[in-house]
Automatic annotation (TrEMBL):
Superkingdom of this protein's organism: Bacteria
EC supergroup of this enzyme: oxidoreductase
Family membership: Belongs to the short-chain dehydrogenases/reductases (SDR) family.
Record-given protein name: D-beta-hydroxybutyrate dehydrogenase
Length: 262
């Protein structure tokens, strides 16, 4: 299938590693020109170089931290300079520290909110006018399966990412007539360094080994394994594609069947 994104300009947040990096590679493989961002200049430069060596789409990068107040301005300026605009925006953020809901602190909530919610919304709002004017745009927000089925010991993530569900759906209704889609993509257990980190945290919390934690997690996944970054990225690439123009306001799971609800 031709995804019809050759030459499209894609900004992918938090793409120095993990899911963001995988999505950037998938889009570039389809001919999109991608802008990577993250906190590690070395990783970003290496990733952009690898994408450019593969051939079809191009990659550039900018070092930027979602925790900085000037993040949105920095990303918009970089997108203008390096891409000439934004056709595809992939909102992706790191995860907050693990912990339960009963001891969630307001201080931690306020610390994480700008990075995981406010700046995502601000960046999207400011990127939208160009998309609407061109009558083509794609907003894809990577959240978590915890917005559908709360994940134990990830109360901060469950809480903050859930705010993006209502926002994305509301936005989709407002911009659909202008050829802009807005969807959420929810990863289940896709194997990344973050997955290993969470398995380690759960092992410490429960007194089990990391392997025991992993085996328990696998038992809850009908597919019987953790997902691959490439599998997740392929779903993302379709959702920002031309053929997906009638998919909007949706919450799509890529979880191997682990969420129990229909």
């Amino acid at each position: 299938m031709d995804l019809q994104i050759e030459g499209k300009r894609a900004l992918v947040l938090a793409s120095s590693k993990g899911l963001g990096h995988g999505i950037a590679r998938a889009l570039a493989a389809e001919g999109a020109n991608v802008l990577l961002c993250g906190r590690s200049a070395d990783a970003l430069a290496a990733n952009a170089g690898a994408i450019n060596a593969e051939g079809r789409g191009t990659a550039d990068w900018v070092e930027a931290d979602l925790g900085d107040e000037g993040f949105v301005d920095r990303m918009l300026d970089a997108a203008d300079q390096k891409l000439g605009g934004i056709d595809i925006l992939v909102n992706n953020t790191g995860g907050p520290p693990p912990g339960g809901a009963a001891n969630m602190s307001v201080d931690e909530l306020q610390k994480q909110f700008p990075m995981m919610v406010a700046r995502v919304i601000d960046l999207t709002t400011r990127a939208l006018p160009g998309m609407r004017e061109r009558k083509w745009g794609r907003i894809l927000t990577v959240a978590s399966s915890g917005v559908v089925q709360p994940i134990p010991n990830l109360a901060l993530s469950n809480t903050l990412r859930s705010a993006l569900v209502g926002w994305s759906k509301s936005l989709a209704n407002e911009v659909a007539a202008d050829g802009v889609t807005s969807n959420l993509l929810l990863p289940g257990r896709i194997h990344t360094a973050r997955t290993d980190q969470l398995d380690e945290a759960n092992a410490k919390r429960t007194g089990q080994s990391r392997e025991e934690v992993r085996e328990a997690a696998l038992a809850t996944i009908p597919a019987g394994r953790y997902g691959k970054v490439e599998e997740f990225a392929a779903v993302a690439a379709f959702l920002v594609s031309g053929p997906a123009s009638y998919v909007t306001g949706s919450v799509i799971r890529c979880d191997g069947g682990s969420v129990k609800s229909v």
